[in-house]
Structures are given as C-alpha cells and as structure tokens.
C-alpha cells in the first residue's frame, strides 16, 4: 500500500471522527455536514484514477477508499443504535427514510459491495477522460492499463 493511500485512509478516518465529535458536542448539523468523508473519497478517487496504472489496482484503491468510510459509518450508526442518541449519521437526509438497523446493515453490505464498485466505476470514467485527453495531446505513455 502506497504512502498516498495510507494518507487518504487516515484523512477519511480523521474526517469521520471529527464529524462524529462535532455532532456529539452539539455543533449544529448545518455546520457538521460540511465535514465530509465523501469529499475526501472524491479527491482520492480523482487522484488514484489518474495515478494508478491498472484497472485491478484502481479497483483495489476503490475498496481502500471506501473501507474507512464504511467503518466510521457503521460504528457511528451502532453508537446511535446502542445509545438511542440521534446523530448526523442517521438523519432523514442521509438514511433516505430507512430504519436504523436497515441503514446500519445497508452500510455494512454496501461498503463491501456496491459502494466500492461505484467508486471504481467513477475512477474508470475519470481515467478514460484523462487518457482521451492524453491521446489528443499525443502523449499515450500511460495508456497500457
């Protein structure tokens, strides 16, 4: 695992912890919602879509980007479940109206299946656009992925 991937994993985890702590200390949701693990994942997706040379490595990167997010989400939802205290992690805006158990299990299952695959698909689209631009410029040396 590269140092850059480790840095993104730490950044995603740190952002999730900050988000949880801000919510737990009664910072208004209107502020907490801007502390976004998704934004860090998006930045990582763009970076790894371009920096990683193979489709297989991009798939692996997608899983590494989603796993810390899934872990924080499942832990925060489990806290909500165990304590009965509402958190930003289970508001109507984020749970799409599902029950807390369904939302928690959905993140656990989704974090191992469709969420990393969605990130991978996004990375592949970014890679295709990037490579198309390189071909137009006449520089195809990263095209062998």
What report would you give on this structure?
This protein is mostly helical and 145 residues long. The protein has one domain. It has seven helices and no strands. Helix 3 crosses helix 7, helix 4 packs antiparallel against helix 6 and helix 4 packs antiparallel against helix 7. It is elongated, with a radius of gyration of 17 Å.
Q: What's a concise summary of this model?
A:
By secondary structure, this protein is mainly alpha-helical.
The total count of strands amounts to 0
Average pLDDT over all residues: 88
* Total number of helices: 7
Shape summary: elongated
Topology of this structure?
Elements: H1 3-24, H2 29-32, H3 37-51, H4 55-83, H5 92-95, H6 100-112, H7 114-137
Helix pairs in contact: 1-3, 1-4, 3-4, 3-7, 4-6, 4-7
């Amino acid at each position: 695992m590269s140092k850059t991937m480790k840095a993104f994993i730490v950044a995603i985890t740190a952002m999730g912890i900050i988000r949880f702590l801000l919510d737990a200390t009664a910072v208004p949701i209107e502020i907490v919602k801007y502390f976004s693990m998704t934004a860090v994942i998006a930045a990582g997706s763009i970076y790894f879509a371009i920096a990683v040379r193979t489709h297989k490595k991009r798939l692996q990167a997608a899983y590494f980007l989603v796993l810390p997010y899934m872990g924080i989400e499942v832990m925060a939802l489990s806290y909500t479940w165990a304590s009965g205290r509402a958190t930003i992690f289970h508001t109507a805006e984020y749970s799409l109206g599902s029950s807390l158990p369904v939302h928690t299990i959905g993140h656990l299952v989704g974090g191992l299946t469709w969420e990393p695959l969605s990130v991978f698909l996004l990375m592949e689209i970014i890679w295709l656009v990037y490579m198309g631009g390189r071909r137009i410029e006449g520089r195809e040396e990263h095209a062998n992925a």
